[in-house]
Amino acid sequence: MAEVMTNTLVGKIVDLLFSAAKRQIDYVRNYTENIEKLRNEAQKLKDMKGRIQQKVHAADDKGDRLLDGVQNWIDKAGTEISMVQDFLEQEVNVKKTWFNSRFCVNLGTLYRYSKMATDKTHFLVQHQEDGKPYESCVSIPTPSPSFVDLYQRKNLDDIDTQKLTLEKVITTISDESIQIVGIYGLGGVGKTTLAKEVAVKLKNQFADIVFITVSQTVDAKMVKEKVKDAAKKVMIGKKILIILDDIWEILVLPDMGIPCGNDHMNCKILLTSRSKNVCEAMTEENNIICVNPLTKEEAWVLFKRVVYERTLEASVELEKIARDVTKKCNGLPSIIHAVGTTLKNKSIDIWKAKLDRLQNHALVDLDQEIEKAFTRLKLSYDYLRSEEAKSCFLLCSLFKEDEIIPLKILAEYGVSLGIFNNLESINDAKNRVQIAVDTLASSLLLVPDRWRNRVRIHDVVRDLALLIGKDKFMVKVGKDLKRWQPRNNTSQNYTKISLMECRVLNDLILHFPSLDTLLLQRTWIATVPDEFFEGVRELKVLDMTYCTMSSLPQSLKLLTKLRMLNLSGNTYFHEISILGDLKNLEILKLRNTIIERIPEEIGQLTNLRLLDVYGCKCLSHVTPGVISKFVLLEKLHIGFFLNQEENYNCLVEISNLKSLKTLQLYVFHCDLIPEGANFKILTKFSIQIGKFINIWVGHRSHRLQIAESNIPFKMLIKELIQVSDTLVLWLIKDLDNIVPDLYKESFDELKCIKLRDCQNVSCLVKTRNHKAIQTFFTSNDIGQIRQTKKKFFSQVEEIYLVDLPCLKLLWDCPHQYISFSNLQTIEINGCSSLLMLFPMSIVQELAKLRDILILRCDSLADVITETQMGIPDPDANIVFPLLTNISLGYLPKLKSFYSGHSSIKYPSLKSIMVKDCRSMERWGYGVHDIPKINFHHQGTPCNINDIITLHHKTNKDMEFETPP
């Protein structure tokens, strides 16, 4: 066995020795082949290195980033090639030595060089394998710098309007429950700048921020491409901010490839738009933020930065001019930058010239930068799809800067100029104007006044309108035109001229053959010759309100195309027969003039749709039959200040007008209201009876005022009262209550009650022990009360009771018949006998109450009292959800706001005023939760139940408001 193992081991050793010997022999035998192979592989590596190096150079030229390892591979390849070249040179020199010295070839040397060549070849081949990926790609594209990287931050120091708006936007975006935030504002107000400021501020909170300018023409494909990568990141849970700038129409975000909805709240979206409506449609109302123009001081700060403050400080005169220039920019940063840039480093004479052009709205002559700024602003106008909105916008430019413009005036102008298609009525025109104004207000081209029926236009936006109409409009408002006579080469094209509040000192005859609108409100013209209107025969609208004319010029009858004539407020002429020639007139307004009669000639105006002769206190005669001829009349405003029998006949004619929808009427006495007059068919009426005292309340559609007159309790007046939504009674002596004295049944239509100086009124509703209560409530067969009509006061929104010395209660009937579910405002002043206002059983229905004002009520002890039969419930919770203001003054017996112990919450309360209520001991005995008001006395926070103590320390006056 040992012999066999020995033989096997010897055999293996011999095989190994033989293999090793064979390899060594192969190195010697294949010497030349190995050297040549090394040379070839070195050349291949060199060629590969050259190709990859070319790609590297190309990537460097493009600014792309090299892949990790590329440069190391190139460096190593260079080293390997250099070493091989040295080796090959060595090998050549060795062979030369052999041949030159005729030495025999040294087998050991051959072996060594052949083996080294084989080893190096292996390294070269492996390096080529390592470099193959780089032959196809050596770099990755370097992303272009984002707008966040390139954006230069704006200096918002002392620009609080934009700084606070920026903070509000950031706070809203940071709210995890909000996904889409919209900011809107006028073109050039700085929306894009604020959006970029937001991005820079929040760049560390998002994995990616994408900024896309959408503009007027939406390119959905472009938007999808730009948000593609960001959308992928959203889907894997990363937080992304997408800013869609300059949106003009409502976008469906998922169709744009933008993830949104509850499943993708990590995708925040910021919208900017000129349209409030667009922002509201794409997000919730509370998530939209208006970007307002800068204040005057902020605009001045910005303007100084643009033109360099030191330049302005060098001259007092220049600084004054610069401030005036800044005011004309209306707080729009884009206009401020444009104007400032063009004036920077210019002489004071150029500054003066620019200011003069700005003040005279000569924008067409201004510099290119300013024109560009206005062109951007003009996009808002160009994008309007409604021609009616465009026409209303341009009409607003005819008025004075920042003047409050009634919508009814725009409607009347629009009707007369024919800007409304398929118009049904003048009231319809008012509605169409409201729609147009809403459209313009959404784009911030107009600013609604706090009353919905009025509007304003900002200076710079008015300048834009004048720029648009520069070839056809002439507007010189508030100027002294000492020697004004337009040139013939410019007067041919004018369609609208406004000379409101001007003084024209020279004799003037108008020559404007294309003119359709002439506005001369409050204009003083030295001389109005008979030929005044000869050159404006295409005129459709002529407004000469409060103008100075001693008589109507004879040329007025040449205006046969005139559709609106307003001569209201002129107190120098009284004869109007000449107006009978204006047979196309649809609107004639003579309010507050001194006309004495409406002559027979006026009956020729059969196209009249609106006639206003209200407030004409000299009007004593209306020719019989004239009113009846106005078969198309929709609106009539007329007053009869003289108690003449013939007025009755005129009123009968009025009651027979079939098209009449709106009536404003004053009559001296209730007896003048004709029998059979049907006021129910009127869409709107305002009727005053008795002494002329204008104390209208609110803006409701059916208003009745009776002052200093004995009310005849005949059925006609009760019917008129019954259909009125606003009832004002002043100095009515023989009135004890309104139910049942004035109302046959309930007052279902009544929304506003105002009683003043009605000495005998003891309550508003007095039905205790009176059969009238049965008209509201009956009993069923088992004795349960069944309501057949609405409760008393259930529709009333406002109550004003002033100087009613006998008023003790608001109602004298069981509480279950009373409801104040719609009451919003109650004001009681000078009701010295009033004992109680609201019992607790009624308070629970005051869900809409907003304002309480009680003054000079000597007997009032509590505003809210526990009912006599009621049992105080400390656990009861009363909430005034909308109550905003409480004012209590000169109430000597008032002990508390609430005498019970129930808890009351006032979540919306903003202010409490208590003045000279010397008996007031506590606000109330229950828990009064008023979280939005901080009570402080000399810097010390106080509880509401402690305010009366403070009251005695502060001269009996207190006022607490919501902290800023």
UniProtKB/TrEMBL annotation:
Gene3D superfamilies: Helical domain of apoptotic protease-activating factors, P-loop containing nucleotide triphosphate hydrolases, Ribonuclease Inhibitor, Winged helix-like DNA-binding domain superfamily/Winged helix DNA-binding domain. InterPro entries: AAA+_ATPase (IPR003593), Apaf_helical (IPR042197), At4g27190-like_LRR (IPR057135), LRR_dom_sf (IPR032675), LRR_R13L4/SHOC2-like (IPR055414), NB-ARC (IPR002182), P-loop_NTPase (IPR027417), Plant_NBS-LRR (IPR050905). Keywords: ATP-binding, Coiled coil, Leucine-rich repeat, Nucleotide-binding, Plant defense, Repeat. GO terms for molecular function: ADP binding; ATP binding. It comes from the Eukaryota. Residues 21-55 form a coiled coil. Residues 177-294 form the AAA+ ATPase domain. The keyword ATP-binding applies. The keyword ATP-binding applies. GO terms for biological process: defense response. PANTHER family: NB-ARC DOMAIN-CONTAINING PROTEIN-RELATED, RPP4C3. Belongs to the disease resistance NB-LRR family. This is AAA+ ATPase domain-containing protein. The lineage of its organism: Eukaryota, Viridiplantae, Streptophyta, Embryophyta, Tracheophyta.
